[in-house]
Amino acid sequence: MLGLPQHIQLTFSERVIPKRILLTFQGGFVGTHCALYTSVNSESGKDWRHWTSIYPEDVNRRQTFDLPAADEGEGGTTSVKLVFEQSSDFFGRITVYDLQLEGTVPGPTS
């Protein structure tokens, strides 16, 4: 896929609370500005809310980004979208070798 923006969407079978994201890119093809969105269920379907932005370096080693706590009372999300708004490549190409999202599953509510 060429051009910007590009995105990766992760969907989970249950609600999760993401805490950290780990990314490995091919050097020279790095998404240098990445906006993270979480899903918000609404009457019109699934909407996206901007959560935070991360700024990976143009290197081919694993990079770790701690994520801010979500708003209180949300209980997690079922989807996360990474939108790559800028690339280190002139043509906007991005190559992700590895993507890990670490976090927790919310406990039962009483």
Question: What does this entry look like structurally?
Answer:
InterPro entries: Galactose-bd-like_sf. The protein has 110 residues and is an all-beta fold. The chain starts with 5 loop residues before the first strand and ends in a 6-residue tail after the last strand. The chain has a single domain (6-104), classed as Galactose-binding domain-like (Jelly Rolls, Sandwich), CATH 2.60.120. The model has no long low-confidence stretch (mean pLDDT 89). Strands 1, 2, 3, 4, 5 and 6 form a six-stranded antiparallel sheet that branches. Helix content is 0%, strand content 60%. It is elongated. A hairpin with a 2-residue loop joins strand 2 (31-42) and strand 3 (45-54).
